[in-house]
Amino acid sequence: AAGPNLISNSTFDENIDGWYRFTAGIKRDTNVYKGSSGASMYFPPNDTNRKIYWTKKIKVTPGHFYTFRAYFRSTNVPSAPKLNIYSYNAAGERMRYQQEWFSVSKSDTWQETAMEYRAMDNVSDVLLYIGDSGHTDAELWVDDVYFGEGRVTLEQASSSKAPFTGNRVKIDSKGNFEVNQNGAFKPFFPFGITNTSLVTSDWAQKFSNQGFNYSLGSNSSTLTNLKAAKSQYNPNGMMMMASTLYQTGYDPESIKNAVNNLKSSSASDAILSWYYEPTDGNKKLSTYPQIKGAYNAIKTADTESPVFWSLGQIGFARALGDTADVTGIFRYSNYLKDGKKQIQVNELGSGFKIASNLQGVTKPNSIATISVTDDQGAPKPTPAQLRALTYHAIWGEAKGVMFWWEKQANGSKIDTTDLWSVFPVLRSEIQTILPIVRQGTPGFSVNVQTQEDNKMVDVLAKEYNGDPYIIVVNTEDTRVNATFNFVGLPFAPTEAIEIFSKGDISFEGNNISTTLEAYGTSVYQISSIPVPDTVPPSVFIASPQGNETVSATINVLALATDNVLVDRLEFYVDDLLVSTDIFAPYEYLLDTTTYTDGAHALKVIAFDSSGLKSETSIIVNINNKPDPEPPADEPVADPPPTEKDKPKPDKPAPGKGKDKIKPRTYTKGNSIKINSRNKVSKARLYWLVKDNSKKAFVKLVVQKRVRSKIR
User: Which regions form coiled coils (predicted)?
Assistant: First the structure.
């Protein structure tokens, strides 16, 4: 639910009931507004006071999801308004701080922003903050602010994503990478490690042996070392994200020279992408001309590898969509528990889903950044949390992962951490499920219910090659018992093939139940073990009726049903098989003139796909005796023909009495008449209709005193 509008006539009046401003009075603008309040929050440029507005505390329920939604308008692109949520326990202690930057993609236009929030254990209240980060000098307006329970569903339709195509790297509209290896493009899931120092040949080989297939670098020496680092995971060596802007800044000529220097390297085919962040050295958001100028400079020098940028804020994916070929998401997700920072697993994938749906995001969001150090504003994850973070990024449709390590230059080595052994396992698992992640479609859905209060499990449902798969992530730090109800499966699930599993599983009806350990992840292929079919089909003869007297040619029609599938029907006359029909309506054309007059048995046997059968039979009486001749002593003279009865061109002459008319082909508009008047006449009519993929209609008009049997 959207929740109440926190800026309305009842709350956003001149007294600003429910809203506060840090160190200064709130500013209202009655000339620029979006909603019914007739005013907006106004952030003036170059204001010496901090530009922050906040609400009174709002009650929340632990474990529940909420959406913080607002509409922004700015004079500059990019701007940097922020949505912030502070979490408090019942004692009033702050437990968590969560923020998200946004930017409009078009100046002086109202655009929606949204932020997903999940109340953790022991959270009682939240404060909502709206602020201008001060990263840009721009006027900013905020109007129509909502906070309500439920996960993010943006009102704006997602835009079409423009794929990137080069001779070295391709990226489709979903963000899937393909890399040219030995003259052929092959699927590539970026699985990278970054650090702030030079990647020596020794470290490049260590990285390759652990399953990483790219790293961040800025010079030809690092590029050469990475390409030479071959392993079982990387038979062609590793690749490099080239971070040239760390050395060049935003000077276009310096950027072009740096790009050309790397392109001249003998290892230039190992360039995965060009990497930059749209901020200056002080993390201040760069101006749009600077960012766009850097992009244009790179594209002028090289068109074979994509330009990738990552700032970590989902709102900038929209505002800066035309300054990159692919974007990434980096989110610091943590909260306090027992006085210590804890990882918040669910937000990384959620951020990807939000960014992918924002209107105006013309470039695909592809690579998720996960911090594996403890000096990035969040604690270093545990091995279990690292697995959960990676799988949750995939749940959010990330098509690559960058693990961020910044301690190498300070002498702290990542291979001494407890995370080192996790990476090769993750790389192997991702490689196995890569076709499902890349090409799977949402052919069904899954409803999730947990037995424990306020706990959550996220499930990614994918259909690949006709088989359903689920990727399950427990984002909790405790064991969770979850039940999955499948919607849209063509069968009741009775078997789960464990691709990778960290929990027990059982079946009941259309549900699957599983127990997941803390931060547990599982991948299952769902299937159905066929249940033996013990129910035979049902069948009865609809026409003719039992003991009915029949003559000439009749249509024997049978109806059959089965709990699985009817395979065929067999028709018998006097226990002799005369026809088999595999398509409904099941019928047989019986010429009774080939049988003697009297009682005959009609029997139909129905078979289902399991070979089970049922039969039914009736008795019919055949009577093909000729009709009596009219009395000879009662001749009736034919009246003189009228104009209506006279022959006409392309029409046959009328028949008289028992006269026979020779067979002929009749076309549209032609007809045949047998005008017997007071005599007895017989006519047997047949049609042969050619199938020319069009409809054919046969019209028969029979006047009184004529007996007609037609098929």
Answer: none
Sheet with 140-149: strands ordered across: 28-29, 40-43, 140-149, 65-74, 111-118
Which range is least confidently modeled, 97-106, 395-404, 511-520?
A: 97-106
- DSSP annotation of 94 reads E
Which of these, 505, 465, 467, 501, lies nearest to 484 by C-alpha position?
505
* More confidently predicted of 137 and 89: 89
Q: Classify burial at 575, counting beta carbons within 10 Å of its beta carbon; exposed 0-12, middle 13-18, buried 19 or more.
A: exposed
Strand intervals (E) in 633-705 = none
In the DSSP assignment, the letter for residue 631 is P
Query: Would you give the end-to-end CA distance of the chain in angstroms?
Result: 63
| Model pLDDT for residues 163-209, shown as the tens digit of each residue | 999 999 999 988 899 999 888 999 999 999 987 667 899 999 999 99
Q: What is the CA radius of gyration of the chain?
A: 39
CA distance 175 to 198: 28
Q: Which CATH class is domain 171-437?
A: alpha beta
Assess whether the region 445-527 and the region 538-622 belong to the same CATH fold.
Answer: yes
Q: Which residue has the tokens 């393909």?
A: 178
Which residues lie below 8 Å from residue 600, measured CB to CB, with a gap of 6+?
573, 574, 619, 620, 621, 622
614 neighbors 587 (Cβ within 8 angstroms): no
CB 145 within 8 A of CB 64: no
Instruction: Give the residue among 84, 47, 80, 86 at the shortest CA–CA distance from 68.
Output: 84
Cβ-Cβ contacts under 8 Å for 615 (sequence gap 6 or more)? 539, 603, 604, 605, 606
The mean pLDDT value for 71-94 works out to 86
Distance, CA of 193 to CA of 197 (rounded, Å): 12
Residue 57 DSSP symbol:
P
User: Nearest CA to 509 among 526, 485, 544?
Assistant: 485
Q: Give this prediction's pTM.
A: 0.70
CATH number of 445-527: 2.60.40.1180
Residue 65's contacts (CB-CB under 8 Å, 6 or more residues apart) are 116, 117, 118, 149, 150, 151
* Beta carbons of 205 and 229 less than 8 angstroms apart: yes
**Who's near 619: CB < 8 A, 6+ residues apart?**
546, 547, 599, 600, 601, 602
The three-state secondary structure class of 354 is: helix
User: For residues 177 and 170, what is the distance between their CA atoms, to the nearest angstrom?
Assistant: 6
pLDDT the model gives residue 151: 78
Burial of 515 (0-12, 13-18, 19+ CB in 10 A): middle
Residue 21 and residue 41 in contact, taking contact as beta carbons nearer than 8 Å: no
**In the chain, what are the domain boundaries?**
19-149, 171-437, 445-527, 538-622, 650-711
pLDDT at residue 651 tops 50: no
Alpha-carbon distance of 586 to 556, in angstroms, equals 8
CB 24 within 8 A of CB 38: no
Residues in the chain: 711
Burial degree of 371 (CB within 10 A; 0-12, 13-18, 19+): buried
Topology classification of domain 538-622? Immunoglobulin-like (2.60.40)
What's the CATH superfamily of 19-149? Answer: Galactose-binding domain-like (2.60.120.260)
Is residue 40 predicted with pLDDT exceeding 80? yes
Tokens representing 164 are: 């990137």
